[in-house]
Specification:
Layout (H helix, E strand, L loop, with lengths): L1 E2 L2 E2 L5 E6 L12 E7 L6 E6 L6 H12 L9 E5 L4 H6 L22 H13 L5 E8 L3 E9 L4 H10 L3 E4 L7 H7 L3 E9 L5 H17 L17 E10 L4 E5 L6 E2 L4 E6 L6 E5 L4 E7 L3 E2 L4 E9 L2
Parallel strand pairs: 5-6, 5-7, 7-10, 8-9, 9-11
Antiparallel strand pairs: 1-2, 3-4, 4-6, 8-10, 8-16, 11-18, 12-14, 12-17, 13-16, 14-15, 16-18
Length: about 325
């Protein structure tokens, strides 16, 4: 297998360095791509994180997988990219320095924006080797996501893989133009998108679910070495076919009153928004019964801000 002009032989692990651009100080920036091949043939799985540079929980999940040696497969090949957006990771920012969200510029361009150039290299130099992928994300802008897998609807193979990973929630989510997931789908790569936690934060429970789910995923392909034990899921997986965002009707201080992952009835009070002078209190109520899969942890919200993500329809 030859990636980025480096040959990786069976039974070998190599860290390749993807270098596309430098900082404005002329300092080199290299993106480590950790490739590990077994001596036995098998599929190639990509484990990636940090597409948004401030989503650290995903970075921690892939880091743990590498640190524990789970990325050295029993068969096949595992490619780990713990931090894709190294610029955003350094700046603790979601975007690239050019202000673009890399997850909206795929497949990118060799002569395009900085984010587009990185997307181009991923699509043309990494993805041709990949059969399956798990891309790890977290909620942005202080919004905490309950651990969940997102897949395109009406795809039985993806649903089977998601069931093997077995997070608390499986959410049907249509492909978004310009996204990494959409680029993988166009190349026939089966990708699970994991969401859990929030930006600029590492939650140990979310990390554990991500690591354990990945172990179950790799074990299903006989890629996980026998030295690693498989833990059964701690809870049933709820499949959400439709969901809704609840937004703040007024600006003010936000006082959450529900726990992430909990089930609420229609009309239940989810939070209160108050002004700082003690004159007004406005309640935010559930528009329907469902599971709360995202909670805004910000202390202040503006009118129209997304505050809660609630399931609307479940798969029976």
């Amino acid at each position: 297998m030859t990636i980025l002009d480096e040959t990786i032989h069976p039974g070998e692990t190599k860290t390749l360095n993807l270098e596309i651009a430098r900082l404005h100080t002329a300092t080199k920036l290299k993106i480590p791509v950790i490739v590990s091949r077994a001596r036995l043939d098998g599929p190639t799985v990509l484990l990636s994180a940090g597409l948004h540079g401030d989503e650290l929980n995903g970075v921690d999940i892939v880091r743990q997988i590498v640190h524990r040696g789970m990325n050295v497969p029993k068969r096949g090949t595992i490619i780990c990219i713990p931090v894709i957006n190294i610029f955003g990771f350094i700046n603790q920012s979601r975007e690239f320095p050019d202000g673009r969200d890399m997850n909206r510029v795929f497949p990118g361009s060799k002569t395009g924006s900085l984010a587009g150039r990185f997307a181009h290299y991923l699509v043309n130099y990494i993805l041709p080797h990949v059969d399956y992928a798990i891309d790890f994300h977290a909620g942005g802008a202080s919004r905490f996501n309950a651990p969940q897998i997102r897949i395109a609807p009406e795809n039985l193979e993806l649903e089977e893989l998601a069931t093997i990973f077995h997070p608390p929630f499986l959410l049907y989510s249509a492909q978004i133009a310009g996204s990494f997931r959409n680029a993988c789908a166009k190349k026939g790569i089966k990708m699970l998108l994991f969401e859990g936690g929030k930006s600029l934060d590492i939650n140990s429970d979310v990390s554990e679910m991500g690591v354990e789910g990945t172990k179950r995923f790799l074990h299903s392909f006989d890629m996980l070495k026998d030295e690693f034990s498989i833990c059964p899921p701690k809870e049933d997986m709820t499949i959400i076919t439709n969901s809704i965002w609840v937004r703040a009707k007024r600006s003010g201080l936000l006082h959450d009153q529900v726990k992430i992952g909990s089930y609420v009835e229609k009309g239940a009070v989810l939070a209160e928004v108050s002004d700082p002078y003690g004159k007004e209190n406005t309640t935010i109520k559930a528009p329907n019964a469902g599971y709360v899969i995202n909670v805004n942890d910000a202390p202040i919200v503006y009118q129209g801000d997304a505050v809660f993500h609630i399931s609307k329809t479940l798969k029976k």
